[in-house]
Amino acid sequence: MNRGAQRTLPPVHESWLPRQHVLYRPRHATRQWLALVCAAVFFAAPVVTYGLGARAAEIENRELTPFPSPSAGWGFFTGMAPWAVDHLPFRDGAITVADTVSRGLFGEPPPLGDGSEGVPLPGDQRPDEDAAGEDAAGNETGGHAAPRVVEGTDGWLYLGLEIDSRCDEQHDFDEMRARLRRLRDGVEASGRDFALVVAPDKLTVVPDHLPDSYAERDCVTDVNQEFWRRIEAEDYLLDLRAELERWGEVLGVPVYPRLDSHWGDEGGVAMARALAEAVEPGISRQWEIGVDGGWSGPADLPPMIGRSGEVEGRSYRLEPDGEGDRTREVGEDFRTPLDIGSTAVPGMVDRPAMLLGDSFTIRALPYLAASFADLTVLHHDNLREDGGQAVADMLVDKEIVAVQIAERTLVPDDHAIVDPDIIDTVTKTLADNPIE
């Protein structure tokens, strides 16, 4: 047999060779069969248990990953894993058990979302896939993603995304500011008013309970200072930090709860007042605001690390004319347009307005209902659809364009609100339909 013949592989599949042959490999070894069975159970469990009446719970302060669309190409297959993980029954119980065992036996929290699996977003962006080396938005993390939840002192918890948003990005705040200014100029050139509220992160307003040392602490400090220096330079970007700190001093407690990543109703009141004053200066002079009971609900951070916890807050009455409380519950779902309307009284903005907001807007809704007589609220993630054209069309019959965006969403400077193409779409549509 010549050398060429010696290098020729057998003309049959390796599993069909005699067992004694050096190249023989079984088609499915025991471990392969086990892996296939486990995979089948993993993907079938959500379907089977759903048919039996079990329902997966939202335990990570975000919507459950939707079933991937067959039209997504390879994205259908890459999207199956996060869908199956989110819809596994009793996942919340499994996380709780893992936390109990890890803390009881090893004295440390379990490695849930330790950076290798990405960080879930706070209900404001719906990730398609969590990948190693990326955050939940698909941004490269540089290999140093924070835990999903950072455990601070005195039982305080912080959202890891707040750290990642600062330290896993190359920031160009001057470019971000220039794009926002272009959006503002385009809106105002069409005869409309524009205002943008930046909801500060918890670690910005209440940094005192962050751990004494944590990865990228210097990065967080430096980026925070740089970011807010740029915000302060733009008079149309509404900075609520001082007002939130004033509320905290009056109450004797911070306006951000110990176990939640969002502000309380104090932030909602401050946001409503800031927006109203931005479009009609002096309108809130006659407002009367007072405590009107309390509320409680599940905190958003504990479930991410296998715990549970409640958050308590104060609700307020807002009398825009100084005589009658106009706050009311209007629902919390504004993934589709949420129209808020009422008869205007003195102290209320009575021109048609639209607010593009995120989860921080939820606690502001009762107070926006008391301060704006004709308001439509929509989640700003809708700008990602069809290049922002649908949202631009909804703005045509509005005289006021307002935006609320979380600091942790704006800091990476890659959100739809600063996308040049979307800005062009919005400003062109409004320019073609000016307010006379």
Quick recap:
The protein has 436 residues and is an alpha/beta fold.
List descriptors.
436 residues; alpha/beta; six-stranded mixed sheet; 15 helices
Describe the protein's architecture and organization.
Helices cover 36% and strands 14% of the residues. The protein has 436 residues and is of the alpha/beta class. The protein has 3 domains: 3-86, no CATH class; 91-167, no CATH class; 173-431, no CATH class. The strands form 3 sheets. It has a 6-stranded mixed sheet with strand order 4-3-10-8-9-7. Helix 2 packs across helix 4 (80-86), helix 11 (265-279) runs parallel beside helix 12 and helix 13 packs parallel to helix 15. The protein starts with a helix and ends in a 5-residue tail after the last helix. The model is unreliable at 113-144 (pLDDT under 50).
> Largest beta sheet: what is the strand line-up?
4-3-10-8-9-7
Distance between the first and last residues' Cα:
92 Å
Mean pLDDT: 81
Radius of gyration: 26 Å
What is the domain tally? 3
How would you describe the shape? globular
Q: Which stretches are low in confidence, meaning pLDDT under 50 for 5 or more residues running?
A: 113-144
